[in-house]
Prior knowledge:
Keywords: Hydrolase, Maltose metabolism
Bound molecules: 1-deoxynojirimycin
InterPro entries: GH, GH13_cat_dom, Glyco_hydro_b, O16G_dom_2
Oligomer: single chain
Strand order of the largest sheet: 16-15-14-6-3-2-18-17
Number of helices: 19
Largest sheet: 8 strands, parallel
Organism: Amylocarpus encephaloides
Low-confidence stretches: 1-28
Distance between the termini: 25 Å
Structural class: alpha/beta
Protein name: Trehalose-6-phosphate hydrolase
Family: Belongs to the glycosyl hydrolase 13 family.
Radius of gyration: 25 Å
Amino acid sequence: xxxxxxxxxxxxxxxxxxxxxxxxxxxxxxxxxxxxxxxxxxxxxxxxxxxxxxxxxxxxxxxxxxxxxxxxxxxxxxxxxxxxxxxxxxxxxxxxxxxxxxxxxxxxxxxxxxxxxxxxxxxxxxxxxxxxxxxxxxxxxxxxxxxxxxxxxxxxxxxxxxxxxxxxxxxxxxxxxxxxxxxxxxxxxxxxxxxxxxxxxxxxxxxxxxxxxxxxxxxxxxxxxxxxxxxxxxxxxxxxxxxxxxxxxxxxxxxxxxxxxxxxxxxxxxxxxxxxxxxxxxxxxxxxxxxxxxxxxxxxxxxxxxxxxxxxxxxxxxxxxxxxxxxxxxxxxxxxxxxxxxxxxxxxxxxxxxxxxxxxxxxxxxxxxxxxxxxxxxxxxxxxxxxxxxxxxxxxxxxxxxxxxxxxxxxxxxxxxxxxxxxxxxxxxxxxxxxxxxxxxxxxxxxxxxxxxxxxxxxxxxxxxxxxxxxxxxxxxxxxxxxxxxxxxxxxxxxxxxxxxxxxxxxxxxxxxxxxxxxxxxxxxxxxxxxxxxxxxxxxxxxxxxxxxxxxxxxxxxxxxxxxxxxxxxxxxxxxxxxxxxxxxxxxxxxxxxxxxxxxxxxxxxxxxxxxxxxxxxxxxxxxxxxx
Length: 628
Ligand code: NOJ
């Protein structure tokens, strides 16, 4: 990709009081021709490319009337289908609903063909599928097959005896050594992903070997080297496809192949840490692509599917294109983590500084990579493993949260790829407040992390404060608070008098679906109304926003993200997003003239702004215009 030269934006506060804007606009104003790489081919249209996917976290989405569990349910999802349809959703992806002891909120499955009683029954799923179908919508299942629950009959059989016929279904290794007191040492130094103070290996007293469980001890990794394991997984996939699912989100699918011999990880966490992230030895491991092609051959090729592989820890273009290139014969798309890991050093529960330029760089990179190489993007900035986007990428204060949430919506609806919205993002739910006592945080990762802080730093006030800050900024719990439906008890998530499994956010009386669907403001759309309108624009102009070319016009600029999208027939739209609290002016390239500004996050309808030369934006303002 070519670099575009100089910054074409000037901040108001950068101007001295006697300076006119014109003087500062100064020298060269580039033309878009100077900035463009040519685009030769456009992607083939497909339903799964244009689909808007909505991720449901079933525990927190909607309980059904009469339920006393305080958990969301499948019946609850069915009750909300009209809501989702009216927002503009085509595909519902629910995080796991299969039978599970819930050590990791369903990402530990003990029966792939049964529904967890918290959520309902197979009949409820059939009813959900029928109701989705009536509305022209589809269901994507969460396929968790890197590991099972330690309560899965396969593991119960594998455990306990080296002679078990299912022994080889999991990854077993002898102790590396024994301490003087006879305690066995794990085969290597890999840390648990959801509790980095602990080993990823767990000792089975009975059979005197360790099993590998990368996430928690309750989630033993399956041994994909074993062909019977793979066949059992194909069987599970056929089961759900035949029942009516449209496809799968595949949990950490790039971790299924481990480097043989399980080498020690580099000691990246530094002294004082016994265990270290072993990613290098299991992220996109040696047999990954072989397995993904087998999945395609044995299962996916037999149906018309939507598939998205969760692939943390990889940003190598060649590797990624092997999976999502149009002729890859692997998956339709993957989740690339560069953006949601922007503040991650080597483990998730930590902080790294970042800036808007870096954020823009990541988005632009993947837009261009897929365009230039015939691959396909997923567009997402939230999910159940990340803090809320409005808190993370913009300003979630009462003053700015709505502008920020709509700015992010505008960015996403104008990016190429399949769009994923996470529950609550459509009303701008923000992170839980730092005043919440630690007991309100329920996620196993947060619990392990806080325990580690207490074990290591109980007497160190600064370290403990940092630990709490990391929880306030990064905990997965922020995305898991109950959905805010209405200004009534329990926010309408579950019946009055029932205690929700997790605390409802304190702001539910002002931030809720009921209020935002109605829209109380005469001058502005609510976040929900903005999403709804913007999704219509995206669909109406899919040739531009889903499939079109993408060129960034603001690479050197520290705060403003500007890009244009262009359809195959030359229709071009300009997106100008101010990712700062300052007012800014953006100097348009000489050859750009706007026909009309279609929408923005400050107004209800068309935006009144200059159509040439210089356009100014208020704090966190974003606008979308069609070019002449
Ligand atoms: C990724 C899932 O999104 C996360 O919630 C889970 O903890 C791990 N995979 C393990 O399944």
